[in-house]
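Title: Comparing notes on inverse folding

I've been comparing how different people in this forum approach sequence design from structure. To keep things fair, I'm posting one structure and asking everyone to reply with a full sequence. Here's the target:
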């Protein structure tokens, strides 16, 4: 029995998120169905991150255990067969039996795409279109630095389990302009709460329009109290770029 580490990418609008769903439209469902056809029995996979419906991934990682005697390249071809255009396996390799896609990860890198105008019909699935008028990039960049470090992020999260720790560490939060009208937010962290990445982006955009102050951001990070309503950025602009391992 071998443990297999896989990297995949997917277009999030075609699925109801990563996690298995009752109607079998999660990315996990599609992959497990494909593996069952290959191995002729149920194969459970374990993902590194439960991306929400509509969120895209360029470097999602998962693992599973199965016996296969035909090499990684042959398994890669078999897994990609009949997956459709919205999901692709990028890499397959054997790994240490103790490797776990989620618990062995030491960080994840996300990127969120903003467009300072109305998106075209070919762009809207991959960005959040916001008005360029009164948008203050320098304030947004200044606010981004406040999120770096170890903080209480409960004010910037959705529903939190009572067993989950709200203290998280982000080593990088950067707002990067791309001429002429594109901005992306890149963040690297050891862990994220539910909808945390999208709500950080929502808060940064609100700061850029002068409707949220740097002092308010600082207070929310210190107290963790949901005393202000924070905008949740739409799912379609968020990409899981990379899962980091030691």
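Reply #1:
Here's my take.
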């Amino acid at each position: 029995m071998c443990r297999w580490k896989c990297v995949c990418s997917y277009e999030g609008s075609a699925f109801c998120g990563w996690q298995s769903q009752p109607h079998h439209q999660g990315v996990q469902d599609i992959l497990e169905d494909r593996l069952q056809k290959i191995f002729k029995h149920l194969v459970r996979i374990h993902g590194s991150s439960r991306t929400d419906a509509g969120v895209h991934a360029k470097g999602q990682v998962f693992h599973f255990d199965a016996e296969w005697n035909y090499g990684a390249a042959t398994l890669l071809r078999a897994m990609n067969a009949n997956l459709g255009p919205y999901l692709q396996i990028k890499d397959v390799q054997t790994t240490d039996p103790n490797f776990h896609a989620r618990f062995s990860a030491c960080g994840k890198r996300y990127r969120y795409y903003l467009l300072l105008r109305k998106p075209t019909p070919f762009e809207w699935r991959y960005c959040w279109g916001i008005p360029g008028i009164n948008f203050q990039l320098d304030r947004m960049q200044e606010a981004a630095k406040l999120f770096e470090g170890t903080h209480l992020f409960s004010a910037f999260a959705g529903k939190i389990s009572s067993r989950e720790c709200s203290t998280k560490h982000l080593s990088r939060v950067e707002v990067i302009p791309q001429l002429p009208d594109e901005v992306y937010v890149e963040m690297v962290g050891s862990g994220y709460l539910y909808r945390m990445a999208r709500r950080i982006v929502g808060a940064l955009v609100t700061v850029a329009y002068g409707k949220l102050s740097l002092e308010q951001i600082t207070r929310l990070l210190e107290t963790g109290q949901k005393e202000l309503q924070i905008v949740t950025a739409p799912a379609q602009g968020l990409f899981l770029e990379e899962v980091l391992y030691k």
